[in-house]
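This protein record is not my work; I was only asked to verify it. Would you go through it and say whether the fold makes sense for this chain? Here is the record exactly as it was handed to me.
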Amino acid sequence: MKQYTIGKLAAEASVGVETIRFYERKGLIKKPSGKTGFRQYPTEDVQRIRFIKRAQELGFTLKEVQDLLHINTNPKATCGDVQILAELKLQEVEEKIKDLEKIRTALKKIDRACAKSKEAVACCRITDCFEGKC
């Protein structure tokens, strides 16, 4: 099995060394023993770190990622466990979509208001549009 030093692991996973140390402190990856003087990370940690980063990019919190990883490695975990997490995240995503639709509507109103009058800022105040007064 291939082993990585922290620097090589960071490079392979496209993260910084401090990110790996942070994930160790948070319990997202195990801190390997440094029997040889250097910490040696297993190959699986590359995929694990990539998963963590991608999940964060998609809006998962580190706690949610930790829960997903725990389910993934827990032999007693069921599809119901995954479903509960998925339903909670789906509800949060639906709420964000509603907020994004409101922002889109406000930005369209700003665009229309500013297109009518390019001179006066009062015609297209962004703060008014986010409050529904545009």
Helices lie at 6-13, 17-26, 44-57, 62-73, 79-116, 126-130. The mean pLDDT is 87. The first strand starts at residue 3 and ends at 4. The first helix runs from residue 6 to 13.
